[in-house]
Amino acid sequence: MMIQQMERGYMTASEAVAVFRHGLNDELGVAAAARYDAQAGVDHRTSRIFAATYRIAARLAAGADDLPVALLEEHTPDFSEQDRRAVILMLKSCAPHRVSGKIAHDVLRNLGAPLSDRVVGDAGVQLLLGRAEAQARMALSDHPEVVAGGDPVSALLDDTLVTRIRTAASPPARDVSEITTPFLMTDTRRLTDVVDDTIADIQASGDWNEDVAQRGRVIRGFAWITGNKRLCDYGPGDARLFAATLRKLPTEFRWGTFEKGNMSRPFDEVMAEVEKKGGTRRDDRTVNRDLTTLSRFGRELMKTAWKPRYGKDPVVDFAGFASATPVDNPDDPDRMPWTDAHLRALFSSTIYTGGGGCGRRLKPDPDPVVWHDAAYWVPLLLSYGILSREEACGVECEDFVFDVETPFVAIVENMTKSKDGTRPSGLKRPSRRRMVPLHPELLRLNLRGYIEAVEAAGHVGAFPELYQEGLTNVGGKRFYASAGRYQLDHVDGVLPLPRTSDGKRADLHSLRTTGGSALEASETKQLVVDDIMGHAREGTGPRKYSKAWFMKGGAAILARRLEVMVAALTVVTDHLQPAPVRLLAVSERSRTGSAVGCASRKKA
């Protein structure tokens, strides 16, 4: 008989029911005894806590020590924090999932059922579910139909009576055909109604910094493409439509806003024009970036309006339409660096050798003057500091430190680049916070004299003309519009700039690529290159254990970085002489105008 019991690997239906009833009977007796001993009324709260504890325990492995948060939330959706803590405490201290196996073994033996580990485990689950049902029924012990019989315990063992009570107390079942949304709630607000608040919630969680202009544009672009529907009307097809549309939109496409530009017009009308014109194919990385933005936006909405009616997977799944991670082709880069010859062409323009005033900086002048402003210094900072355009344009006067052994500029958050006027901002990611040594050429050309002159005039930002009140675009965008694009066209006219296989010419950001390429070609360790450029360190060692700044001191590290930069970067301004600091009126600074014979682009 024992051999037969061990060989059969499952319980029969009657055995499973018997085990369940055993748990029900036993627990119901314990609950009733506790109530009678206390001579109190029905404690619905305690019964609910016990029932939830048993149901969670039925889902845990016998030896489990951890409690999955999702499992806890599933069975305690409307519990107070105090009640939820009580469930956690009982699961950890009493651990019913650990003791259920021994009890189940004895029950199975008395039934003559199999005693294999699998069957004992299944029986343990049935016992726990029976105990959970007992506690749920105990909450009905003060119901009039239960009390009327005079024996509440017997009444609660009557499945027919319990079912009738529960059916009468439950609202009528809803016809599935009435459900018109895959979400738990029917939120009739339009998507654009919740964009700002949802972005603020994501920022509060620490996921996004203050610079959310691009992300906001992506989300509103999704609303425009999908018709800005009610939140409850969205579904899987909308994520597919957005991804497919992104892949059709060329890089030349400009979104605009709901008040002006393409997004102010009907989507179908705009797409008809796009398909007719064609253009440069959008890079897979750009598509993936926008889908990542919407994935995070969707996850935030899953807490409320987009909480799924069934399951835990997102209804609007943007990530599912992302392309495989693009693999760079070293023989076909997506951005070309500048050559030394192109850099010399840039720094040989009349901006550096002497030209006219506002609007005529790139044209010869009978009384040539070198003016100091962003048009003069930003390209130099990009070349000799390997900064990004936004970093160079948004630096403040106090970020430059000259009276030390190795002068440097601190790339940090500041109020010049603040997005809300109350908190400093301006770092793309934490790794971009760094100290960059000032190349000797920057000092030779009198950067210090310029910074001191601007600071003496009462300005905080090193390039105040880029952040004047009333400007539509500020910082790097303002610089490109008023000076950068004309400087690029000038160089391109003198010596055609390098271009990628799809025709994209080297631009201002390519100057950072140039510096990074120079460091790559040197003997410098990758960790030092990453620290100079503000790239995140990779690997446990560099991230966790490389703390030379604190061991050797900042002065030694800055000296080492400067040594590396001087050795790697070609001096392309040795033909220039330091010019006395001359400042145009702020409203006239960095407005170069185009070079002779150049028709500038509006976008790089």
Which structural class do you get from the secondary structure elements? mainly alpha
Separation, N- and C-terminal Cα atoms: 85 Å
Spatial ordering of strands, largest sheet: 1-2-3
Number of beta-strand segments: 3
- The number of distinct helices, counting runs of at least 4 residues, comes to 27
- The helix-strand sequence is HHHHHHHHHHHHHHHHHHHEEEHHHHHHHH
The mean pLDDT is 86
Low-pLDDT regions: 600-604
Using the CA coordinates, give the radius of gyration. Answer: 35 Å
Largest sheet geometry: 3 strands, antiparallel
Global shape: elongated
Percent range for β-strand residues: under 5%
Describe this structure in words.
This protein is an all-alpha fold. Helices cover 49% and strands 2% of the residues. It has helices at 2-7, 13-38, 44-58, 69-75, 81-93, 96-111, 117-138, 144-148, 152-156, 159-169, 195-204, 213-225, 236-248, 267-277, 284-301, 340-346, 350-353, 374-385, 389-393, 440-444, 447-456, 476-494, 510-520, 526-533, 540-545, 548-552, 554-568; strands spanning 400-401, 408-411, 434-437. Strands 1-2-3 form a three-stranded antiparallel sheet. Helix 11 (195-204) packs across helix 15 (284-301). The longest helix has 26 residues, at 13-38. The protein is elongated.
Short description:
The longest helix is centred in the N-terminal third of the chain and has 26 residues, at about 15-40.
Secondary structure layout:
Blueprint: H1 2-7, H2 13-38, H3 44-58, H4 69-75, H5 81-93, H6 96-111, H7 117-138, H8 144-148, H9 152-156, H10 159-169, H11 195-204, H12 213-225, H13 236-248, H14 267-277, H15 284-301, H16 340-346, H17 350-353, H18 374-385, H19 389-393, E1 400-401, E2 408-411, E3 434-437, H20 440-444, H21 447-456, H22 476-494, H23 510-520, H24 526-533, H25 540-545, H26 548-552, H27 554-568
Antiparallel strand pairs: 1-2, 2-3
Helix pairs in contact: 2-6, 2-7, 3-5, 3-7, 6-7, 11-15, 12-15, 16-22, 18-23
